[in-house]
Amino acid sequence: MSVIDEALGTDKTKTIGADKFPLDELIARQAEYLRSIEPVEVDVIVGEQPVKLFVPFMHPNEFDELANRNPPHRFGAVDIPLWFDLEGVTSSYPGITVVSDGVEDDLFRVRDQEAVYCWPELYKVLSPEDRQSARMAVWALHVWAPDQQRKNAAAKKSEGATNG
C-alpha cells in the first residue's frame, strides 16, 4: 500500500474493479460467443458439379489483419459502407473447405514441395453468382452477424428498461 493510500485509508488493490461491470465475465461470454459461430455453407458449381463451400468464422483480430491488407476501393459501391475490399478479402480468405460427394477437401495441394492453399485459384473460376455467394458468406460472418448481436443486445437492454 502506498503512503497516500495509507493516509487516505484506501487500498487500491481492493478497490480496483470493485463496483464496476464484470469485465472478466463479459470477456469470457464474448469469447464463448465467438467460438460458437458456425461456418457458413455455400452451394456452388465447379466443373458442372455441385459442391458445398464451408466458410469458417475468423477471430475478429485475424479478420482485421486480413481486412487491413485489403483496403476498400474509393469508388467501389460495395466497399463504401465497409472498412475493407470484400472481393479481396473473400478471394484470400483462409480456411475455406469444400465438400463434394461426402468428401471434405481443405484445398491444400503440394506444389514444388510446398503446401499451397488453392482457394484463391478456385475462387477465380467460380461463376459471378457463386463468387457473390462466397462474398455474402464472408459479409454475413463479419458484418451482418456482429450487427445482429448489437441489435439483439440493445433490444434486450431496452426490454429490460421497459420491464424494470
Percent helix, as a range, is: 40-55%
Compute the gyration radius: what is it?
23 Å
Kindly report how far apart the N and C termini lie: 41 Å
Number of E-state strands: 6
Biggest beta-sheet profile = 4 strands, antiparallel
Strand coverage percent: 15-25%
Average pLDDT score: 89
Oligomeric state: single chain
- Number of separate structural domains: 2
| Count of separate DSSP helical elements | 7
- What's the SSE pattern? HHHEEHHEEEEHH
Secondary structure topology:
Elements lengths: L2 H6 L3 H4 L7 H14 L3 E7 L2 E7 L4 H9 L17 H6 L5 E4 L2 E3 L2 E4 L2 E4 L1 H7 L2 H36 L1
Antiparallel strand pairs: 1-2, 2-3, 3-4, 5-6
Write up this protein:
Strands 1-2-3-4 form a four-stranded antiparallel beta sheet, with helices on one face. A two-stranded antiparallel ribbon has the order 5-6. It has seven helices and six strands; from the N terminus they run αααββααββββαα. The longest helix has 36 residues, at 128-163. The protein has two domains: 1-36, no CATH class; 38-152. A hairpin with a 2-residue loop joins strand 3 (97-100) and strand 4 (103-105). The mean pLDDT is 89. The chain is of the alpha+beta class and 164 residues long.
